[in-house]
Amino acid sequence: MKQNYLFALVLGVTDGIFAALTLAAGRVINSSEPIELSFACRIAVAGSVSGLFVFFAAEYSRLRGELSHAERHLNLMPRGKLATTHLGQAILRDALKAALISGGGSFCGALFPLLVSGLLGEPSFVAIVAAILTLGLLGAGVARAIYGNPLRWAAAFMLIGMILTMVGVELRIT
Q1: In sequence order, which residues have a C-beta less than 8 Å from that of residue 118 and are 6 or more positions away?
Q2: Rounded distance, CA 55 to CA 164, Å?
Q3: How many Å is the Cα radius of gyration of the chain?
Q4: What distance in Å separates the CA atoms of residue 174 and residue 160, rounded to the nearest whole number?
Q5: Is residue 19 left, alpha or beta, with left meaning phi > 0 and alpha meaning psi from -120 to 50?
Q6: Which residue in 7, 8, 29, 99 has the most C-beta neighbors within 10 A?
Q7: Tell me: the pLDDT tens digits for 136-156?
Q8: φ, ψ for residue 8 (rounded to 5)?
Q9: pLDDT (tens digit per residue) in 61-103
C-alpha cells in the first residue's frame, strides 16, 4: 500500500473512532442496553461522509499545491498549465482514491466499537472500552511505523479517546 494511502487509512479509522466516541457517548453512557445495528450504522455513516469530504478537499488541495510549486520551479507559463495535463487528472484520481480509503476506514472505525456492544449483547459502555482499546492499538502501530515510543503513542491516543468521550457525554448529541 502506498504510504499516503496508509496515511489515509489510519486517519480514517482514527477519525471514525473519534466520531463514534463523540457522537454516541451520551447515549452509550446513559444506557445499559446493547447498541442497535441501525444506531451504529447511522453514527458510522455520519462520521465517514463528513470525513471523506474533508479528506478529499485537504488531499486535493495539497496535491494541487505541490503541482503549482513544481510549476513555479520549472518557470512554466502560463500558471496552472500542469493542472490541465494528465498530471492534473492523476492528482484528482489519487485524491479521490485516498478519500475513499479514508472514508471507508472512518466508517469501519466508527462501526467496529459500536458493533462490539451490539453483536455481543453487552451493555453499551463496552463500545467505549472497545473504542479506547482500539485507539491504543492504533497509537502503538503508528509509533512502530515512525520509530516512536509505542506506550506513549498508545497512551496519547487513548487519552484523546477518553477526552472525546467526555465531550460527547457533555454535548448529549444522541
Answers
A1: 34, 35, 36, 37, 40
A2: 20
A3: 19
A4: 20
A5: alpha
A6: 8
A7: 999 999 999 889 999 999 999
A8: -60, -40
A9: 998 888 877 777 666 556 666 656 777 788 889 999 999 999 9
